[in-house]
Design a protein that fits this description.
elongated; 44% helix; seven-stranded mixed sheet; alpha+beta; single chain; six-stranded antiparallel sheet
Length: 798
C-alpha cells in the first residue's frame, strides 16, 4: 500500500471512529486536531476546540488522574481503557463520564499524543440498573422467605389437624408444591444425611443440572470444600434447637466446575412430636454482588494507600475542626501521631494574621462559591515555628456533611530561595551599574594617565612642574586601583593570572580596608618581606581579602582586632587533599584572623554554600562562596578554624611561583618603547582614548588608520587590503562590536592579528564573545608603555 493510501486510510479512521479523538501537543497539552465525534461529544466546533488544551476539557475523579494523564503524554506511557475521567460538554455544560485510551504518535512534526474518549454514561446507567435490580431481588427474596415462613407455619398447623382436615391438608400440600416448584427462588429439601430429596426447577438451573440428575446428591458435593465445615456446624445448631433457621454466604460448585457465591437460608421442619424432619433451603446467586464488594474494597485500599503514601499533606476540615490528616500533613506541622492533630481547631495550624482570610475561603468553598484554589498562607508547627504553606482546597462530602479537602505543601524553602534570587538580582543590577560606570571611568583614566605620563617624560630634569604632574599620574593610578576594588564588590573583573607578591596586594587594599572595618576595629597587617610570589589574578585576590574583611567586620559589631598575615607556609601545615602527594609543593599563606563571635559546627558545615547567610536580610550569602571559588580557581587550598565567642581564622594557601624582577612602573619615554613600522587599524568610539592611542603608536613608528566605529573600520580595511598588520579594537562599540569587526575583517584579510581593548567588567566582555584566555586583550586603563609593549608582543607572535 502506498504511503499516501496509508495516510488517507488513517485520516478516514480518525474521522469515522466512534470514539471522540483528540490529538494534543505533549509539551503544552494544546489540541492539534479533533475528529467529528469529539465535536459532537463536547458540543463545540473544531476551531473553538483547537484553541483549548486537554486540561480545559477533561477532569478526573481525583487530582492525580490528570497528573498521570499529563505525565503519560510527555513520556512513552500509554493508557488502555482508563476509568475515572470526565469530558466537559459545552462551555458551561455537564461533565460526562468517559473511558480514556492514550497512545503516542510519531509524526514529521514530532511526537504527539492521541487521546480516545468513549462515552460510558449508558454503561454506568446499566450498572446502576443492575444494582437496583439486585436490591429488588434481595427484597423479593426476603419477602418470599417471610412468605414461606408463614406458609411453613400454616403447614405445621395443618399437619396438626390432618385427621380432622384431610381435605384442607391436601389443599395446603398442593399449595406448597406449586410454590415450591414454580417459584424463581432456588429451593431444596434435604434429609438428616444431607441428601437432596426434592429440588425445584430454579435450584436445578442454578447449579446446571437437570432435576433428575441432582436428586440423590448430597449438599457437600455442591459446596466448596472450604465452606463445608461451617455449613455442617450451622445445621448441627438447628438440630440441637439452638436456632430456628440460619443464613450464611457460602461458595457453591456449578456442574461445569466454576465457583459462585450464594446466600443460603436454611430451616429445619419438625413433626408434631418435635422430631427433626427435613431441612428446607433457599439459595440466591450473589456472585456479582460479592465481586462488586471486593472491587470496592480494593478500590478503597488503593485510594487509602495513595492518600497515606502521598508526599503532599492532605487534611479534611469540617466546621472549625480538623477531621483527618495524612502522614505527610503530620510531618509538615511537626506532629508524631494523627490523634494529636485530628479534632484540633483550625487555628492550631494557621497563623493568626491569615486565619480570617483562610476561614472565609473555606466557608465560601463549602457554599460552592468560586474561590482561589491555591491560597498561600503561614502555618504554625507544633513547636510554634512559622512555615509557608501552599494549598489547594475543594469541597467534598464527608460522613454525611459538606467538608473542605485541602492538599498542602511546605514551601518555606521555596520562599527562601525566591528571596535569595531577588537578592541576587539586586546584586546583578549593582554589578551592571558598576560595569557601566567603570567603562566610562576607565576611558577617562586612560586619557588622564596616558597623557600624564607623556607630559612627565617630556619635562626636563629639575622642572618645577614635574613633581605636580607625577602626583597627578600617581593619583590616576590610585583611581584605577579604586575602580578595580569597587568592581570586586559587584562582580569579577577580568581574570588575568600573573606572578606577583601577596604583600603587594595587601598593601594596595590596606587603606580601603581601614575605611571598611571602621575605627573600632584594630587592623594589623603582618607581611613577611621574604615571602614567595604566587601566580593568580590580583583583582580576584583583592576581592578575596575584601570579602573576608567584611565578614570579619560583621562578626565584631562591638569592635575587635583583624589580623592579615602573609608568609611562606610550613610544609607540615599545608592541607593535603585525599589521594594527593604527601609532600605538597611550596605554598604561600594568606591568613585572615578576627576576634569576633565565631561559628558553630552547623554554620561551618554550610558557610561556603551560595546564598547561605547568618545575617538575615542584611546578607547575600555570596561572600564566602566567592572566596571558595577564587581559591579553587587559583589552585589553592582553604582551611578554616573557628570557636564560638573566640573568633575565626581563614587560611588561604596558594602555590608559590618563581620570583622575578617586578618593574615598579614602566617608563612612558616613547624613545624607549618598542618600535615598529606596521600598519595598525584602530577602532575606538571614545575620541579621547582614540587620540591617545594614535599619538603613542605613531610616535612608536606605526602607521595608524583610525575609525570611530566598526563599520568605518571595516570600510578602511576594505580600502587597505593586505597592508593591515594588526586590528586594535574596543570590544563594546555602538552598532558593530569588536568581535564582529574582527570576524568580518578576517574574511577580507585572513590571518590578521587582533588586540582587544575594554574598560568593561568580565561578564560584559564575555557577552560580546571575548574569552581572554583565547585572544590578546588589554584592560583599560593602560599606560602608553603597556600599550606599546602589548602591540609589539601581539605583532611578534608566530
Amino acid at each position: 500500500m502506498m504511503t499516501q493510501d496509508v495516510a488517507e486510510l488513517a485520516q478516514t479512521l480518525f474521522e469515522e471512529i466512534g470514539d471522540a479523538a483528540f490529538i494534543a501537543d505533549p509539551g503544552t497539552l494544546r489540541l492539534v486536531d479533533v475528529n467529528p465525534m469529539a465535536q459532537r461529544m463536547t458540543g463545540r466546533p473544531r476551531g473553538e476546540l483547537l484553541r483549548l488544551n486537554l486540561s480545559h476539557l477533561f477532569r478526573s475523579s481525583d487530582d492525580l488522574g490528570l497528573v498521570h494523564l499529563q505525565r503519560a503524554l510527555r513520556t512513552t506511557q500509554t493508557f488502555h481503557s482508563q476509568e475515572g475521567y470526565f469530558l466537559r460538554r459545552g462551555v458551561n455544560g455537564i461533565w460526562i463520564p468517559v473511558n480514556l485510551t492514550l497512545t503516542r504518535l510519531h509524526t514529521e512534526r514530532g511526537p504527539l499524543g492521541l487521546v480516545l474518549a468513549r462515552d460510558v454514561t449508558e454503561r454506568i446507567q446499566s450498572e446502576e440498573n443492575l444494582r437496583l435490580a439486585n436490591a429488588t431481588l434481595e427484597r423479593r427474596v426476603f419477602e418470599r422467605t417471610a412468605e414461606l415462613a408463614r406458609v411453613n407455619a400454616t403447614l405445621r398447623e395443618e399437619i396438626a389437624k390432618r385427621e380432622k382436615a384431610a381435605a384442607a391438608l391436601r389443599e395446603n400440600e398442593e399449595l406448597f408444591r406449586g410454590a415450591f416448584e414454580h417459584t424463581d427462588v432456588a429451593m431444596v429439601l434435604t434429609d438428616a444425611a444431607n441428601k437432596f430429596v426434592r429440588v425445584n426447577a430454579a435450584f436445578a438451573r442454578l447449579f446446571g443440572y437437570a432435576t433428575g440428575e441432582i436428586l440423590g446428591m448430597t449438599m457437600p458435593e455442591i459446596t466448596h470444600p472450604d465452606d463445608v465445615a461451617e455449613s455442617f456446624a450451622r445445621r448441627e445448631a438447628l438440630l440441637a434447637g439452638e436456632s430456628s433457621f440460619f443464613q450464611m454466604e457460602k461458595r457453591y460448585l456449578h456442574k461445569d466446575g466454576h465457583v459462585f457465591w450464594g446466600l443460603t437460608n436454611v430451616s429445619l421442619v419438625r413433626d408434631l412430636a418435635g422430631r427433626p424432619g427435613l431441612y428446607v433451603g433457599q439459595v440466591q446467586d450473589i456472585t456479582e454482588r460479592k465481586r462488586a464488594e471486593e472491587s470496592l474494597q480494593q478500590s478503597e485500599a488503593r485510594y487509602r494507600s495513595v492518600v497515606e503514601g502521598s508526599l503532599h499533606g492532605i487534611l479534611i476540615k469540617q466546621g472549625p475542626r480538623i477531621e483527618y490528616a495524612n502522614p505527610a500533613c503530620l510531618r509538615v506541622f511537626g506532629y508524631a501521631d494523627a490523634e494529636e492533630l485530628v479534632a484540633q481547631p483550625w487555628d492550631a495550624i494557621v497563623a493568626p494574621e491569615d486565619l480570617t482570610a483562610l476561614w472565609q475561603r473555606a466557608e465560601a468553598c463549602v457554599r460552592g462559591e468560586p474561590v482561589d484554589p491555591h491560597p498561600g498562607w503561614q502555618g504554625v508547627r507544633k513547636d510554634g515555628k512559622r512555615i509557608w504553606i501552599e494549598s489547594t482546597i475543594s469541597r467534598i462530602w464527608w460522613r454525611g456533611q459538606d467538608a473542605v479537602l485541602c492538599f498542602l505543601a511546605d514551601i518555606t524553602e521555596k520562599k527562601h530561595l525566591e528571596e535569595q534570587f531577588r537578592q541576587a538580582q539586586k546584586m546583578e543590577a549593582i554589578g551592571r551599574l558598576a560595569g557601566g560606570v567603570a567603562h566610562d571611568f576607565n576611558n577617562l583614566l586612560t586619557i588622564i594617565n596616558g597623557y600624564g605620563e607623556l607630559v612627565l617624560t617630556s619635562l626636563p630634569s629639575g622642572d618645577p612642574t614635574w613633581e605636580p604632574v607625577r602626583e597627578m599620574v600617581a593619583a590616576g593610578e590610585r583611581a584605577a586601583g579604586l575602580t578595580r576594588q569597587l568592581l570586586a564588590f559587584s562582580r569579577k573583573a577580568i581574570v588575568e593570572p600573573i606572578v606577583f607578591e601577596l604583600g603587594t596586594v595587601v598593601g594596595n587594599v590596606e587603606r580601603m580596608l581601614r575605611r571598611i572595618v571602621g575605627e573600632d576595629i584594630q587592623l594589623v597587617v603582618a607581611v613577611d618581606p621574604e615571602a614567595g610570589a604566587v601566580k593568580a589574578d590580583p583583582g580576584q585576590i583583592e576581592q578575596l581579602i575584601m570579602n573576608l574583611a567584611v565578614n570579619a567586620r560583621d562578626a565584631m559589631p562591638r569592635g575587635g582586632r583583624l589580623t592579615i598575615e602573609v608568609r611562606d607556609a610550613a610544609p607540615d601545615e599545608i592541607p593535603v587533599p585525599p589521594g594527593a602527594d604527601a609532600r605538597p609543593d611550596p605554598h604561600v599563606l594568606l591568613a585572615v584572623t578576627d576576634t569576633g563571635c565565631g561559628m558553630d559546627d552547623a554554620t561551618m558545615a554550610r558557610m561556603f554554600e551560595p546564598f547561605f547567610t547568618t545575617k538575615g536580610d542584611l546578607g547575600t550569602g555570596l561572600g564566602l562562596a566567592t572566596v571558595y571559588g577564587i581559591v579553587r580557581q587559583s589552585a589553592g587550598h582553604l582551611a578554616v578554624a573557628s570557636e564560638v565567642g573566640r573568633g575565626t581564622m581563614f587560611r588561604v594557601y596558594l602555590p608559590r611561583a618563581e620570583k622575578r624582577q617586578f618593574a615598579s612602573r614602566s617608563s612612558a619615554d616613547l624613545s624607549l618603547m618598542p618600535q615598529g613600522e606596521e600598519t595598525i587599524l584602530l577602532a575606538e568610539d571614545e575620541e579621547g582614548v582614540r587620540a591617545l592611542i594614535r599619538h603613542v603608536l605613531q610616535q612608536c613608528g606605526y602607521t595608524v588608520l583610525e575609525a570611530r566605529d566598526g563599520p568605518e573600520a571595516l570600510l578602511l580595511g576594505e580600502q587597505n587590503l593586505g597592508r593591515i598588520g594588526l586590528l586594535l579594537t574596543d570590544v563594546v562599540m555602538p552598532g558593530m562590536g569588536g568581535r564582529d569587526l574582527a570576524e568580518r575583517l578576517a574574511e577580507l584579510q585572513p590571518g590578521v592579528k587582533v588586540l582587544f581593548l575594554s574598560g568593561y567588567t568580565d561578564d560584559a566582555v564575555v557577552r560580546h564573545g571575548i574569552q581572554t584566555a583565547e585572544v590578546a586583550f588589554l584592560q583599560k586603563p593602560f599606560t602608553p608603555a603597556s600599550l606599546a609593549r602589548k602591540v609589539r608582543e601581539v605583532l611578534d607572535e608566530g
